[in-house]
Amino acid sequence: MAKFRMRMARNPKGRWILPNTARRHIQEALDAAQLPVRRKRGRPFVEAGPPLAPGHTTSCEFYDVDVTAPITTAAFARRLDPTLPPGFEIRWIRRLRPRARSLQAAASAFCYTVQCCVDAGRAVQFHQAATWPLARSKRGRQNTIDLKNNVSRIAVRPACVDFCIEVHAEGVPKPEEAVASIFGLEWAEAMLLPIERTAIFFIPDQTPDARLLEFA
Fold first, then answer.
1. What are 119-150's pLDDT values in tens digits?
2. Are 149 and 168 in contact (CB under 8 A)?
3. Over the range 104-118, which residues count as b (16 or more CB within 10 Å of their CB) and which as e?
4. How much is the pTM?
5. Beta strand 160-166 with 133-138: parallel, antiparallel or unpaired?
6. Sequence spans of domains, the chain
7. Contact in structure between 98 and 32 (CB atoms under 8 Å)
């Protein structure tokens, strides 16, 4: 039995699909394509990677499946592609090496591209600041985190911003929160910005695929 890793893209048609629904769509597509994958309680067993926040698009959404009969990754992709629902696209499918790390390995950072026109000087201010407090409210509790510990690789380009958010125990800000705080946007405005997740980093020695460490 081999393990295949599927890298999917989610375009705007699929941006509001919730993670559990997205996983179910992949299961239904595998069923419709009649692909030889391991099943659990009658359904294709699919291991999903870090979930995508509703409203976001991505070029890196990952799913693992166990393949139970000989088939090439190219043939697997050809059969699966026509059965995928609108909003999902196959970027690649690869056979994993034996004992490859699971997708449940802890993610250490996520990278995003946000479409917006902002003042590049605010990014300079952020880089030069010793701290950048962000007040947050979660489940009725107030806390403050330092964005300087979380946000890195900020690059302001025409009509968009690229950056990464690192995972820390004190909290992980949403990309909307980071953009609003750093560039002085209203929260309601930040919530409407088109956001794409472009890369995922995993903790050292737990990287499912070295190519995931590239900042795209």
1. 999 999 999 999 999 988 777 778 899 999 99
2. yes
3. ebebbbbbbbbebeb
4. 0.85
5. unpaired
6. 2-102, 107-206
7. no
Query: Do the strands 57-67 and 195-202 form a parallel or antiparallel pair, or are they unpaired?
Result: parallel
Q: Report d(CA 173, CA 152) in Å as an integer.
A: 12
Residue 155 has pLDDT above 80, yes or no: yes
- String of DSSP letters for 17-35: --HHHHHHHHHHHHHHTT-
* Distance between CA atoms of residues 114 and 58, nearest Å: 11
d(CA 97, CA 208): 10
Task: Write the pLDDT tens digit of every residue in 13-28.
Answer: 999 999 999 999 999 9
- H/E run at residue 109: strand 107-115
Q: What is residue 100's predicted lDDT score, i.e. its pLDDT? A: 75
CB 161 within 8 A of CB 183: yes
* Token pair for 156: 């302001």
Q: Which CATH architecture has domain 2-102?
A: 2-Layer Sandwich (3.30)
Residue corresponding to tokens 């003042």: 119
